[in-house]
Design a protein that fits this description.
alpha/beta; six-stranded parallel beta sheet; two-stranded antiparallel sheet; 8 strands; about 35% helix
């Protein structure tokens, strides 16, 4: 696991639970860099090329897209996930990516990785019902989902313009979550120093 000292660069990896071209979740993630302090960066990793999990392909030479995902997670100090909710739950594309990244069991690149979870939906609940499933899946990998107030962006279509989240109250809530994520990353780094 990479470690970020109190003053060093913090690398965050953003993962959208939707692969739709005009995904609101992806738009939310693309809007976050200006909310971060100068010493932090956020890279978006698309899940479009990740194949369905197949234990026959899971080994020292996984599919190239899977190897890329694992390396991106390993190189990051923390994760920022924004997902829609499908049928009251976690989208298959996100669960599939977590399943791939969770290997090898209990020693994967997700182990110990702090994660900020957000959901977004055109509906009034903001996808909040998916959050516990995402949290449970990450906890099973020994990742460290932040324990905090849910970030659930309701009526997301009204808050996104030209592919960017523009609603200031929502951006303020997300910025507070990002700050907590960076503080968690630095706390872990200080403990392991």
């Amino acid at each position: 696991m990479t470690t970020a000292s109190t003053h060093s660069h913090v690398r965050l990896l953003a993962i959208s639970g939707s692969i739709r071209r005009a995904s609101h979740c992806t738009a939310v993630l693309r809007s976050l860099q200006p909310l971060l302090p100068a010493e932090a960066t956020l890279e978006l990793f698309p899940l479009d090329e990740i194949p369905l999990y197949n234990a026959d392909l899971d080994g020292d030479q996984p599919p190239a897209a899977v190897a890329g995902l694992k390396e991106a997670i390993k190189s990051a100090d923390g994760l920022v996930i924004c997902s829609p909710e499908y049928n009251y739950g976690i989208p298959g594309v996100l669960k599939n990516a977590i399943d791939w990244a969770s290997r090898p069991g209990f020693a994967s690149p997700l182990k110990g990785k702090p994660a900020l979870i957000m959901t977004a939906s055109p509906g009034t609940a903001g996808g909040v019902r998916a959050q516990s499933q995402i949290r449970d899946a990450l906890t099973a990998t020994l990742a460290r989902p932040l324990v905090r107030q849910h970030i659930a962006i309701a009526s997301v279509a009204t808050r996104v313009q030209d592919g960017q989240l523009v609603d200031k109250p929502t951006l303020d809530i997300i910025q507070a979550g990002l700050q907590e994520l960076i503080e968690e990353i630095r706390w872990i780094a200080a403990r392991s120093a």
